[in-house]
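Re: weekly structure request thread

Next one in the queue (65 aa):
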Amino acid sequence: GTCSILLGTFILKGLGTTGVKAILAAIFLLLTSPVAAHALARGAHKSGVKLWPKSVADKYEQDRN
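Done, posted below.
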């Protein structure tokens, strides 16, 4: 979603300041999103948030043992 908007901004604005900032922001999001998702999931697990009932495996619990 967000990366598509930023890519569209880049296409419309070209290599100007706004376009370059948009493409850099999209690259930043693509690089940091997996790390943020992992940190949120690990924090939720440590806080005791229950897994979805249809979860197949609890990898965080397996890694802890």
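Residues 2-64 form one domain. The chain has one domain: 2-64.
Next request, please.
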